[in-house]
Input
Amino acid sequence: MEIRRSEKSGIDITSIERQDLPLEAENNVAGVAGLAMLEAYNPQLGFEIRIVKNIKPGSGIGSSAASAAGTVAGMNYLLGNPFSTKELIPFAMEGERLACGSAHADNVAPALLGGFTLVRDTNPLDICALPTPLELVATVIHPKIEVKTADARAVLKKRVTLEKAISQWGNVGALVSSLYEEDYDLLSRSLVDGIVEPARSILIPYFSELKVACEAAGALGSGISGSGPSVFALSRGMSTASKVAQAMQSVFEKTTIPFDIHISPIKKTGVSFIEDLR
Amino acid sequence: MEIRRSEKSGIDITSIERQDLPLEAENNVAGVAGLAMLEAYNPQLGFEIRIVKNIKPGSGIGSSAASAAGTVAGMNYLLGNPFSTKELIPFAMEGERLACGSAHADNVAPALLGGFTLVRDTNPLDICALPTPLELVATVIHPKIEVKTADARAVLKKRVTLEKAISQWGNVGALVSSLYEEDYDLLSRSLVDGIVEPARSILIPYFSELKVACEAAGALGSGISGSGPSVFALSRGMSTASKVAQAMQSVFEKTTIPFDIHISPIKKTGVSFIEDLR
Output
């Protein structure tokens, strides 16, 4: 993203490359996040934003969060950082409200803070930055199909059994502990979602084949990225993560579904500043 | 507890002081835990156990776990520690099976390991020892009324809303993080039970008055100890914990219900060995 101060007040999205997204600030997640920040800081000010969007919206890997987080981080930088990084989260959450109807912090918090984050509560906002085990690498496959947010929500049951909820509390607590302890075995045992995954995975073609293939290739665990259709796996070390990528590829190249695969260590810092153009 | 090797095989409970509990090993949590350990190690061996029981059974502060954990830790010591502390947990869990019908590790794991423990799973057993913030002190009030286990279970709903479950996952994860970070404010915000407490607290007289009084006295948080009727509060420092004890006392001295109050820092080690009598 290229962000510049502008003489004109408000947010002016000058161009969006590689994806077909609305230019009007009120209809664009970057625009909405920027406007929320201006509203809190000084509505008289203005910014120009040029977006080169490499992530396809609706992938489940935080496309909207990336735009919202990048916008507010860039604007904050150009204003001399009047807000702390944590204070930027609520502005970026307004972008999520536009994107999916709910001002959640699940993606914008890690996009801004980096690493793993835990959203204890959104009202009031209470975010914990968690440590990132050094050797952890993510492999993500994005099958290029559309999973409608409405469908991803509709398949979830409104109630869960107390037994399953208790089991999942155990997994959540142990997962947090594993990040602090850098205990990859515990992380692997805890990376289990017995609640949302069984319901939502029916919307993702070849999900169980992917899970089996990732495990066979040595992944610590895998799951649905966001509300899908992307599927992530976590591995210890780049070499295993690459094998996991090959395993994912071999599942999907037998199908007619186009796909992208990404491999990345967990980024410990959030939004990066590439260049100061002033 | 006094535990001695015996010529006679099996577990011989020679006396129980201060509480009225069965002496037959098969009907006593200490006996059952000890027998489970002998079964795994060598059923020909024998131990004598004398129990001086200062905790009233059914208090919700882990009376049965104390007996079970003490027995297996003492026997293991006398045998030259053939088992690791974690390996002792399943034996002590058999005592819990006798006490409440379910071989759970919620109390025996911390009784053996000390500090905070998280039970990720019981089948197979997966226990995480968590760090203990240094200044944390517990205040516990034990109203001397009986809460029947059957009632404590019956009031729980079999299902919880996904919304509440998600909120509680946030609290569990944040609570674990707060222990690692020694973040008392986060611990305070996370020490919330929106699932079991609202249901079970109806069985505990003056529960909401206690909670309000603990908070007013400066406690970080409070809740039901085990399945009740005891209520615990956690505070930062002994001085606040003492004020919380006074606050608890002032709630209950207006009633006709007899009660005990205990104040203790969180013990970082489990079962202690007081003296080697050999």
